[in-house]
Amino acid sequence: MEHFDVAIIGGGPIGIACGLEAKKKGLTYVILEKGPIVNSLFNYPVNMQFFSSSERLEIDDVPFISKEAKPKRSEALEYYRRIATSNELNIKLFEKVESVSKTNQNFTIVSNKNKYNSQNVIVATGFYDLPNLLKVPGENLAKVSHYYKDPHFYAGQKLAVIGASNSAIDAALECWRKGSDVTLIIRGPEVGKRVKYWVRPDIINRIEEESIKVFYNSTVKEITENEILIDSPKGPIRLENDFVLALTGYMPNFNFLKKIGIELSKDDKKLPKYNPETMETNVEGIYLAGVICGGMETHKWFIENSRVHAPMIMANIVSKKKA
Ligand SMILES: Cc1cc2nc3c(=O)[nH]c(=O)nc-3n(C[C@H](O)[C@H](O)[C@H](O)COP(=O)(O)OP(=O)(O)OC[C@H]3O[C@@H](n4cnc5c(N)ncnc54)[C@H](O)[C@@H]3O)c2cc1C
C-alpha cells in the first residue's frame, strides 16, 4: 500500500490547490478524483459564465487569462487542467473514495480501485453531486433533470424550469433564446437577489414582456409524462409539459462526512465541525477544504474565498510534522 503525508479527496479547483501547496511544501500527496479533472466544472452547463472575474479564480498565483473579465466554463477547464498537467500533480482520476478509517495516527483510504495509507486526509468533495430533491411524484421520470447542460436539447419543447437563482435563470434565458416555450416556477415572490447583476434585468424584462412565463409563490406538486401540476396562489394549475429542469440547488454528501466521523451542527445548516484557523475537523488529521465547509449554506463558500484553505492546511500539517 502506498503511503503519503496527505491524501486529498476531490480534484476540484480547491483539491488541486491543496495538491500544489503540498508539493511546494515538500509533502508526499495524492489527489483522488472520482471523475475527470475538475469534475464539477466539467458538468456545468456548456455555455456557463462564472460570476467571478478570472483573477479571483486563480490558484497559487498562476495567472488566469480569459477573453472577457468573467471566464467561461471552457476557459476554466483549460486553466485548471493545464495547472494539473504542467505541475505533474499526482492525481488519480476516475477513482472514487469509498471509505476512510483511522488506526492509531494513520488513515486507510479505500477507493473503487485501490487502497492508500496517509498521515492526513483532506476532504475537498464540494457539493455538486447531490441535488436538493423536490420530493414529488414523477420526479424520477426521464424528462426531469437536476442538471442543465445544453439549450439545443429543449428547442421547440415546453420546458418548466424550477428555481430562482443563477442556474435556473441562466437555463431559462438560454433555452428561451433557442426556441423553448419556458415557464419558470419560483417558490418565493421574486427572481433571486443573488442572480448575476448583468443577468437579472434580462430575465425581469423577458418576464415583463411575457416571453417567459412565471409562477411566483408557487411549487410543483406532481409531474407526469405530459403535464405538471403547480400549487399557485390562484389555486392548482395543470400545464402541458415536455421537460422539467429542477434547478433547486445542491448539497454536500453529509452521509460520507458522518461516516468518517465528522460532526455536523444539529440545525438545518448541517455545518461540519472544523477549526477555522487550521481547517482541521473534530477528527485529528482530517481537514476540510473548499465549498464543502458551508454545509447547507452553499452560497457562502466559492473558489474565490476558499482557495486560501490550501496554504492554511499545509502550514498546519508541516508544523505538526516538525513538532
Ligand atoms: C453553476 C455554478 C457556478 C459557480 N460559479 C462560481 C463563480 O463564478 N465563482 C466562484 O468562486 N465559485 C462559483 N461556484 C462555486 C464553486 O466554484 C464551485 O462550487 C467549485 O467547484 C468549488 O470547488 P471545490 O474544489 O470546493 O469543489 P468541486 O469543484 O465540487 O470539487 C469536488 C470534487 O470532488 C469530487 N468528489 C466528490 N466525491 C468524491 C469521492 N467520494 N471520491 C473522489 N472524488 C470525489 C468531485 O467529482 C469533484 O470534482 C459555482 C458553482 C456552481 C454550481
How would you describe this structure in keywords?
323 residues, alpha/beta, FAD/NAD(P)-binding domain, 2 domains, seven-stranded mixed β-sheet, EC 1.8.1.9, Ferredoxin-NADP_redctase_2, thioredoxin-disulfide reductase (NADPH) activity, flavoprotein, oxidoreductase
The residue-averaged pLDDT reads 97
Distance from N terminus to C terminus (CA atoms, Å) equals 26 Å
Please indicate the count of domains. 2
Tell me the major beta sheet. 7 strands, mixed
Strand content: 15-25%
State the shape: elongated
In CATH terms, what is the fold-level topology of the largest domain?
A: FAD/NAD(P)-binding domain
Q: Helix and strand succession?
A: EHEHHEEEEEEEHEHEEEEEEHEHH
Total DSSP helices: 8
CATH top level class name of the largest domain: Alpha Beta
Please name the CATH architecture of the largest domain: 3-Layer(bba) Sandwich
Class computed from helices, strands and strand pairing:
alpha/beta
| Helical amount | 10-25%
Structural topology:
Layout: E1 2-9, H1 13-24, E2 29-32, H2 39-42, H3 73-86, E3 91-92, E4 97-103, E5 106-111, E6 115-123, E7 130-131, E8 144-145, E9 158-162, H4 166-177, E10 181-185, H5 200-208, E11 213-215, E12 219-223, E13 227-232, E14 235-240, E15 243-246, E16 250-251, H6 254-259, E17 286-288, H7 303-306, H8 309-322
Parallel strand pairs: 1-2, 1-6, 2-3, 6-17, 8-15, 9-10, 9-15, 10-11
Antiparallel strand pairs: 4-5, 5-6, 7-16, 12-13, 13-14
Helix pairs in contact: 1-8
Residues 9-15, 32-35, 38-41, 44, 48, 50-52, 96-97, 124-126, 128-129, 167, 290-291, 302-304, 306 line the site of flavin-adenine dinucleotide.
